[in-house]
Design goal:
Structural class: alpha+beta
CATH class of the largest domain: Alpha Beta
Shape: globular
Strand content: 25-35%
Radius of gyration: 24 Å
Helix content: 25-40%
Number of helices: 9
Distance between the termini: 40 Å
Largest sheet: 7 strands, antiparallel
CATH architecture of the largest domain: Alpha-Beta Complex
Oligomer: single chain
Number of domains: 2
CATH topology of the largest domain: 2-enoyl-CoA Hydratase, Chain A, domain 1
CATH superfamily of the largest domain: 2-enoyl-CoA Hydratase, Chain A, domain 1
Number of strands: 22
Length: 406
């Protein structure tokens, strides 16, 4: 499972790292590799025993070992991590875009759990749950307004099972009985900015992203009788899986390297090439980026910029140039381990450097976005409120890359 991302984003549909069976012997080290010295092993044993004997609270041995493993992996770099079964399951949901539940996006709001939006076509949306509704109880057990994860966990469950949802809509209490089912969460949103000019936003890179982008472009072309230009919005997109980033880049490239990577393991070295066929047939392309555009987003932005296929508008990207492999372990655990560093087609590493835009955007002195450092995420795609999108459309209509600060 190869992933790119800031948070708990991982892939499915890509090659998994080798799983470890707790009942098998640990394989011997490869010839020429270093092994743990007896002094280091003794130090670890000493510390563990001191904690067991003298720490103020009794901690189960299993918890101590998991904490040690978490520290061992987490200390390597900020993107490597030890994942418990719950974290591993969440990671799979984020990257597959699929889970069993009722289809609601939730957030904490002043001590309550609020519906951000019901997912279109999901059980909650069909039953009439609305944006702004507040969740009071799940299966007659009150929801903790400080624990969003608990509410989400209780709403999810086996496909076909039912859940009772108590909701407050203003002063009106409502009760819904919903049947859980497989819910698809799509990471792509699209619209027409004006006749001939399309807009596609990718919120993260999951296994369905490349196909969703392709479908969105087909629909935009049908709505407008062909596209004369496109804005691809990658702002605040933290990343996702490798194949999705390659697939999206390949939508707009005719040939050439998309990304290459180098690492110690054989599978950590690779170079991915574009296949013939530009879905826009050379029509102008603008990519919106900012400091929240990371990893897989930077793969796409870097490939399109290096091949001079797109004009980048916005602000410098995050600068994450590493690849993580998710390796399943025994008992539902996993580890996310940095295994490669990647390079853009020009051979540049963007790690801790980011990618500079061709057209840098500053907040306007007046009008939409006045006094803000950046456009609010809620306004992304709203041409009247999104001044960065306004500049992207202006740049797109010019039909050529422009290096400038606006």
């Amino acid at each position: 499972m190869l992933i790119f991302g800031l948070g708990t984003l991982a892939g499915a549909g890509l090659s998994l790292g080798p799983s470890v069976n707790a009942e098998r012997d640990i394989p011997p080290p490869a010839p020429g590799t270093e092994t743990l010295s007896w002094r280091d092993a003794r130090l670890f044993a000493e510390v563990l025993e001191r904690i067991r004997q003298d720490y103020v609270d009794r901690v189960p041995d299993g918890e101590l070992m998991k904490a040690a493993v978490r520290g061992l992996i987490g200390n390597l770099d900020q993107h490597s991590a030890f994942l418990d079964p719950h974290e591993f399951a969440d990671m799979r949901i984020n990257t597959t875009g699929e889970y069993s539940g009722v289809g609601i996006e939730l957030a904490l709001d002043n001590g309550t759990v609020k519906v951000i939006k019901p997912i279109e076509g999901g059980p909650a949306a069909r039953a009439g749950v609305r944006t702004g509704d507040r969740i009071l109880a799940v299966d007659e057990v009150a929801v903790n307004g400080q624990d969003l994860d608990d509410a989400i966990d209780r709403l999810r469950g086996k496909s076909g099972s039912t859940v009772r949802l108590s909701i407050s809509r203003g002063a009106v209490p409502l009760l819904f009985t919903l049947q859980r089912e497989t819910v698809q969460v799509h990471s792509v949103k699209s619209s027409l900015l004006k006749p001939g000019f399309g807009y596609v936003r990718i919120t993260n890179f999951s296994t369905s992203t490349a196909l969703d982008v392709d479908q969105a472009l087909v629909e935009l072309q049908e709505q407008s009788g062909g596209l004369r230009g496109l804005v691809l919005d990658l702002r605040n997109n933290p990343g996702g899986i490798l194949e999705a980033a390659i697939g999206v880049s390949d939508e707009f490239l005719e040939s050439g390297v998309i990304v290459s990577a180098d690492g110690r393991a054989r599978d950590a070295k690779f170079e991915m090439q574009a296949q013939a066929g530009d879905v826009l047939e050379g029509a102008p392309l603008v990519v919106l980026i900012n400091g929240g555009s990371a990893s897989a987003s930077e793969i796409v932005a870097g490939a399109l910029k290096d091949h001079r296929r797109a004009t980048l508008v916005g602000s410098k990207t995050y600068g994450k140039g590493s690849v993580q492999t998710v390796i399943p372990l025994s008992d539902g655990y996993a580890m996310k381990l940095t295994t490669s560093r990647y390079f853009t087609p020009s051979g540049a590493s963007i790690h801790e450097k980011g990618i500079d835009p061709d057209v840098a955007v500053a907040a306007p002195a007046s009008g939409p976005g006045s006094g803000q450092a950046r456009v609010d995420v809620a306004n992304y795609g709203n041409l009247a409120q999104d001044y960065e999108l306004q500049l992207a459309l202006e740049t797109l209509q010019q039909g050529k890359p422009t290096a400038a600060v606006r």
